[in-house]
Structures are given as C-alpha cells and as structure tokens.
Amino acid sequence: MKNQLLFTTVICLLFNFSQAQQSDFESDSIFLDKLFKTSLTNGKSYEWLSYMTNKIGSRLSGSLGAERAVEWGKNTLQGLKLDKVWLQDVMVPKWVRGTSEFAYIDSGGGTTNVVPIAALGGSVSTPPDGIKARVVEVQNFEELEKIGKDSIQGKIVFYNRPMKPDVIETFSAYSGAVNQRTQGAAEAAKYGAVGVIVRSMTHSLSDVPHTGTMSYGALALNKRIPAAAISTNGAELLSAMCKLNPKILFYFKQNSKNLGDVLSYNVIGEIKGSQFPNEIIVVGGHLDSWDLGDGAHDDGAGIVQSIEVLRLFKMLGYKPKRTIRAVLFMNEENGLRGGKKYAEVAKQKDENHIFGLESDAGGFTPRGFSFAATDSQFKRISAWKPLFTPYLADSFTKGGGGADIGPLKTDKNVLAGLRPDSQRYFDIHHTASDVIGAVNKRELELGAAAMASLIYLIDQYGIN
Amino acid sequence: MKNQLLFTTVICLLFNFSQAQQSDFESDSIFLDKLFKTSLTNGKSYEWLSYMTNKIGSRLSGSLGAERAVEWGKNTLQGLKLDKVWLQDVMVPKWVRGTSEFAYIDSGGGTTNVVPIAALGGSVSTPPDGIKARVVEVQNFEELEKIGKDSIQGKIVFYNRPMKPDVIETFSAYSGAVNQRTQGAAEAAKYGAVGVIVRSMTHSLSDVPHTGTMSYGALALNKRIPAAAISTNGAELLSAMCKLNPKILFYFKQNSKNLGDVLSYNVIGEIKGSQFPNEIIVVGGHLDSWDLGDGAHDDGAGIVQSIEVLRLFKMLGYKPKRTIRAVLFMNEENGLRGGKKYAEVAKQKDENHIFGLESDAGGFTPRGFSFAATDSQFKRISAWKPLFTPYLADSFTKGGGGADIGPLKTDKNVLAGLRPDSQRYFDIHHTASDVIGAVNKRELELGAAAMASLIYLIDQYGIN
Question: Chain A closest CA to B38's CA: distance in Å?
Fold first, then answer.
C-alpha cells in the first residue's frame, strides 16, 4: 500500500511537472521560432558585417580601423533606440606591423626559396637588415631544453608542432598547439636564440601565414627576439630542407613595433529590465581584429550577432524582465583590456551580472553552447535543449564562455559561449583570408537567432 | 509484496540491460574512435576528390568525363583489394549543353542588360537566332492558370518564386521551389508560352546560374519549349524591370540537345560477409555530375566517402559479418537510370539488401542521418545516437535515404541518408562553383567516418 501510494505520488508529480513544462515549452518554442524566422528573413547581421569588413576593414587595437569601428558600433546601437548607449574608456596596447615581412630559406650556392611569414602580434622588429641564421627545429619546449643552450645559441628556433588533426573540436587542437606561438619567443630567448619562426596555427596546408598574439613575459627588453608565423606550406618546406641539410640558413626581416598604450573604448548598449533591472545579462563579441584580413569571422561575426540580439528583441516588441546589454569589447586579440576594464567597472559599481554570452568562435552554423556553470545550473539550462533541437543547435556542454566575458565570472553567475561548427575556423583564423566571402549569410543569421534564443530564456527564467 | 517483486525484477532487468549495453557501447565507441581518427589522419577521401575534380572534372551522363570517372572508380576500388569489383551496364540519356547560352533584357531604345543563364538539363534548344518575347512573371502554376492562355501565348514565362529563407533545413526549401524548374516548361507550354526562365534554386543572391534537370513529361516533341535558369541577381533585375515596364523583352539563345541513350556503368565493389554473406549492405553516391563546375560536393564527395568506408575497414583489418558494397551510381542527375538498374538486377538475382546508405547532400560537416525505416527499426537504430555524440553527428531523423538507393526500398529493409550541414549547399549546387575549393578536407573526412561508423553498426547488429 505504501508502495502504491508512493508510486501514485511520483506519477502525479511527474504529470504536473510535465504539464508545467509543456506550457512554457510551447510559448517558448513559438518565440524561438519567431526569432529564427526574423533573423533569416529580416536580419541585419550580414548587412552590418558587410559594412564592418568592406567599409572599415581590419580593426587592430589602436588603429584607425578600430577607431572607426567604435564610431560605427555606437551609431548602430543608437539606431536601435535602446535605453542607453555609451562608450567605456579602455587603454589599449598599440602594436604595428610596419612594412611587409620578408623571409627566405638559403640553402647555399645562391639557391633561395621565399616563404610567406607574418610577424606575431607584440613581436619586436628584426634589425633593419634582418636576421640570417641556422635553424633548430623543435616540437615543444621540452625538446628545446633537451637540445640545450650550446646548440641553440645564435640560431633561429623553428617551432613546427602541427595542430592535431584527430581532435574533433578544432579549438581543442588549437589550445594544444598555441603555446608555441604565445610563449615560443620567451622560451627560445632563454637559450640564446636570435629569432623564432612558428608554424601557423591551422590544420590546412596553405600559403597563408596566421598571425596572433605572443608575449615576452618578464623578459628584459634587450633580451627580446623577433617572432613570426610561417605558412604551413612554408613550414613543411623548411622542415624538409632542414632534414636534407641541417646547415641551411633562414633569413627574415620585419619591422613591427610596440608603440605603447593609447585610448580606445568598449561600446555598450542596453535595454533596461522591466522586472529585475539590477540583474544584468551581457551579450558580446570583440570589436578589434587582427590587421591581416577584415576580421569577418574573428570577430565581426560576434559583434553583429550581439547587436542583432537586441535588434530582434526590439523588432518583435519583446520587453525583457532583466537588463540586457550588448557589449562590443575592445582589444581581445592582444591584451584583453576591454574585457578586464568592463569587469573592473562592473565591480566598482557593484553591478550584478547574472549571465554573459560571447560569440567569438566564428560565424558558422551554430551547434550549441558551452557553459561555465555549476552542476545544478547546467542541469537546469540543459532542460532547454529540446527547444534548440529544431535548429540543430542543441549541443550543450560544460566549458568556457569567452575571453572577454571571462573576467566577469563569479561563483554565482553563468557564462556561456556560442559554439558554431568549428571545422573551417582555423583555415582563415588570423589571416588575410578572414573576409566576408568566407562567411555564409544563413550560418551567421542562425547563430544570431540561437544567441537571442538563449538570452531570451535566461531573461525569462534566470539562472537558478 | 507482489509490487516489490515486480519492482526488483524491473530493476534487475534494467541493470542487466544497461550492463549489456555498456559492454557493446564501449567496444563500439573504441572502434568508432578509430574510424574517425584514421579518416582524419590517414584519409584518402580528399586526395581522391582532388583527382576527380581537377583531373577528371565534370561528369555528366554520357560525357567523356563520366567515362573517365567510371574507369577511375573501377581502378580505385580495385586498388583496395576487395573481394570483387565490377561494372554494371546502364543505358543513360545523353544531353549536351552545346555552346554557351546568351541572354539579355531589352528595355527598348537600344538599352540591354546581359544576364547569366544556363540551359536546364534536358531542355531543347532555342531556334538558332534565339527567342525574343515579352515576359510573364509568376510564382507558381496556380498563378499561371489564373493569368490564362490569352495573356501567356507567345510570351516567355518567368518563374520567380524564391526558396524560402526561413526553413532551417535547406533541402526542404529546395523541395518547395524545385517544381518550377522540373515541370515549369511542361506547364507553361500548355498555355502557349514560347520559352521558360526559372529563378536559380538558391537562397543566395549571386551571378551564377544553377542548372538542374527538367522534364517535358508526355508533351509532344513539337510542343517542347526551351527552358533556362537565370542567376538570382539576374532574376531580381528582370523582376524589377518587368514591374517598371511590363513591355520589356527578354532574349535568350541556347543550343542544347538530347542525343538519345548511350551505354554507361554503375561501378561496384564488395567485401564478402563472413557470417551472413547474403545480407547485403550498400553504401554509395553518384558518379555523374552536372556539366557546370566539377561536381565536387554533388556528388564527388559522396563517391569518395563511400569508397573510403571500404578502405577504412580494410585498413583497420575489420572483417564484416555481412556483405558490404560500395556502389558508384551513374546518372542520378538526369534520369536515375543507375539506381533503377541496380535495384532491377538485385531483384532479378533475388539479393537481400538489408540496408542502404547514400551520401548525396554535400561534403559538409555531418550532423547525422535520416532513415527510411519502421518505427521499431528507427527506435533500435536511435539507441546508437550516443555513439555519434562525440562527433556531433547524432541528429537521427526519419526521412528519405537518397535518390539512387530509393528503388531498393522494401517494407523490410532500411535506407539512410547522410545529413551534412545544409546551409551552404545551395550556394554552389549545380553551378560552376561546385569545385574542390568549396570543400573542406576535415568536413569531408568527418562525413566519411560517420558513414563508416553507421555501416559498422549495421554490420554488427543488423536492422531488426
């Protein structure tokens, strides 16, 4: 009897629960359908991206392009008639590439092979006449240590560990290879290397070098050595030639410079919450890009998608319960100053950021989201997955949100990252090929709609 | 007490079941991991596709390209040291485009706008001097009927219904628009139209016309009118100009021809099953393509992926229980003769095809599969979904398999189609842009591995 009662109670509870779910599910799925339909039929994201890439172009921190992007971002947000639009001062590092880099392999007897390189962001210049030296090829820092100072002194260290092709999620493969680029020069300098050449961070074999940030850490100014990325085809050639003849020489010349900090801005627009105005939801991407290409996927896509979230809400007459902010962060690529500043000011003002969503993984077909959240928060959010199934964007995983929103993390709030299909991203990442022709309009619009859907659900139901 | 016993029994059953599942799941997931890793690190699919597209090129039924593709397919399958490789005779229609088409809008006073068109596959030629006539723009056949013979007679019918942008799965949008292309000429001819111009089947606005098959049905030879696709930008222009001035004239000229049937082949390779050799599993795509472009996605991708399935099994030393055949079907695009012939011969020989898998939706990131199956078969197969989750290819839906394998359907067997991400497919479908540059190596390889995984599971566990 006791068992029967328990059984009946459980059944009743389940039934009520599923009833309650049902009703929300229906109205929510109707609203999500509207968001997707509107983004696909009446979206602005692609038109905006076309402006950002073709009319502004690259937007490296401290550049004229970045300045113009700030102006454009402000005007675009103002055009949406939000409750408030403002700029937030951020001091950003200004690094310039200077004139085009030049590099070749000298295999003796007058035989040279020109190879494509690009100075890494933050790298110092070579001497005006460039550097010519023998090459030590390594896969990682352990190998560097094993080879030792005597064999490295006066040479160019060539990091040639490819991104692993058998990792499904390409960002994981990137994480597993990128320390060669970020710390390679600082490490090689310890052993007396005179320069560093790094295999481009991509799976694909191509002639396009991929730039990206690097850091000398605490290395003294006079110990800093220049570092450049070489295209993967160039890396394959250099490696093959080193194996044939370890005495070949590598020449490269670049005149990049660090010019100190300059003033720039985060651009922020918000719709005030009607019920819980002090609970803030952030949606954003980064306004800056590398100087090669037009930063179409990285992160023009994230910027226009974030603005589109607010525009979709306005267009559909949706009045959020909580305060929703689009934040166009400055300087993600080489300093993260925008993200840090935003979090710092939020803390000063004692603002309660309950949720942050970043799109900084390309404007490709959305597959889902990753969440930095507690188990119970993640479980609660995962209950919404079926709402995303019709759009094939229902892969919800635990993981990071995004670099810019990272500094906002507390042990109470939730951060999320849009997870688009990642297979093509590193074909164009940080290269001259990151242009709007590499972005598919529908994929971009689907991403914006998926983001708006998640923000809507968070706004409706909170995070706990 | 009775309840308790029942409860305990249920728990025990569940436990045993999950134990049994667990063990299979583990070994299966290990094998799937091998398939994916091998495809991504040691795959041949991209290299083969490069050969097919760059060394052979387009492969329209009856063309030299198709002949060379048959030869290449046979040699490639033979290179895998399968148990048997053979050609199957198929009579295919031979249609040729002839010299390049030419079209312009004549808005009077000497003002003309040249627009890009492509004759539809199967269309008759215009008269040698072309056709020049007034234009009737319609969205569908109902509108045609409403306008009526008096207003259509002697004019060119311009079908301009776009593919719906707010349908998530682009193939559904395609299905909803394609009757304009396939039956447009036959319908318009009934009302005395002299020619047909069809908006290209794509969401994107571009200058590239999309060809594709059309049929006159039972229409008498002397009633047949020429039909061509116009690029979407051309369609937008033509529509705008018709609205400004309904009296504008459209001119087009093409000299396409139907040359009757010629001999071609399906190419087939098989690994004999070790336990159930009479249970046949087919994996395939179509070897023919349209004559514009190189048929890289449509369906070079499906061909190389299907061959790769067998190669992966050979390479990993997997000995299938059931007979597995790769079938490179001829003439999917404009006749489906290969698919029909294969099924006809299978029936004659009383062969038992328990399962067929086709890849003919592009070489993009695999999202999952659609299945033509009974509810219980689908339920059983759906239990494997978690095995595909690590590869984000776990969207299993009910639906069709593929055109070529369609004729194999019985009420007992299961047919399946690989479902890649569909957002970009109609940017390049049936155009000069369907070249290998539009194919991402990793996406192609992931598709091949997903196919091999499904075939492996069917081979291991059957379909019932």
Answer: 8
CB contacts of B382 in chain A (<8 Å) are: none
Residue with tokens 């009633």: B223
- Write b or e for each residue in B437-463: b if 16 or more Cβ atoms lie within 10 A of its Cβ, otherwise e: ebbbbbbbbbbbbbbbbbbbbbbeebb
Amino acid at B12: C
Q: CA–CA separation, B102 vs B252, rounded Å?
A: 6
Nearest to B446 by CA among B33, B29, B34, B40: B40
Burial B401-433 (b: 16+ CB within 10 A, else e): bbbbbbbbbeeebbbbbbbbbbbbbbbbbbbbb
Query: In the numeric block, which tokens belong to residue B73?
Result: 């397919």
Q: List the pLDDT tens digit at each of the 464 positions of chain A.
A: 444 444 444 444 444 444 444 458 999 999 999 999 999 999 999 999 999 999 999 999 999 999 999 999 999 999 999 999 999 999 999 999 999 999 999 999 899 999 999 999 999 999 999 999 999 999 999 999 999 999 999 999 999 999 999 999 999 999 999 999 999 999 999 999 999 999 999 999 999 999 999 999 999 999 999 999 999 999 999 999 999 999 999 999 999 999 999 999 999 999 999 999 999 999 999 999 999 999 999 999 999 999 999 999 999 999 999 999 999 999 999 999 999 999 999 999 999 999 999 999 999 999 999 999 999 999 999 999 999 999 999 999 999 899 999 999 999 999 999 999 999 999 999 999 999 999 999 999 999 999 999 999 999 999 98
- Of the candidates A137, A308, A332, A445, the residue annotated as catalytic is A332
Residue from B117, B140, B130, B135 nearest B232 by CA = B117
SS3 of A139, please?
A: coil
Chain B positions touching chain A (beta carbons under 8 Å):
3-4, 7, 36-37, 40-41, 165-166, 168, 170, 203-204, 365, 367, 390-392, 395, 421, 423-424, 427, 440-443, 446
Q: Which domains does chain B have, with CATH numbers?
A: 33-94+260-461 (3.40.630.10), 98-255 (3.50.30.30)
Q: How many A×B Cβ pairs under 8 Å? A: 63
Give the ipTM of the model, two decimals please: 0.93
Residues A276-315 as b/e (b if ≥16 CB within 10 A, e otherwise) read beebbbbbbbbbbbbbbbbbbbbbbbbbbbbbbbbbbbeb
Which strands, in side-by-side order, build the sheet including B131-138? Answer: B112-114, B102-106, B249-253, B131-138, B156-159, B195-199, B227-230, B117-119
Q: Which residue of A has its CA nearest to B33?
A: A166
Burial category of B15 from C-beta neighbours within 10 Å (exposed 0-12, middle 13-18, buried 19 and up): exposed
Question: From the CA of A202, how many Å to the nearest CA of chain B?
Answer: 12
Q: Which chain B residues are within 8 Å of A46, Cβ to Cβ?
A: none
Residue of A nearest to B391 (CA): A168
Distance CA A266, CA A270 (A): 13
CA atoms within 13 A on the CB side of A362: 24
Nearest to B330 by CA among B418, B262, B258, B264: B264
Q: How far apart are CA B172 and CA B399, in angstroms?
A: 11
Q: Is A351 a catalytic residue?
A: no
Distance from CA of A334 to the nearest CA of B (A): 29
State CA B457 to chain mean position distance.
24
Q: How far is A422 from chain B (nearest CA, A)?
A: 9
- Are residues B423 and A37, on separate chains, in Cβ contact within 8 Å? no
Give the tokens for residue A190.
């310890």
Cβ-defined contact of A424 to B443 (cutoff 8 Å) = yes
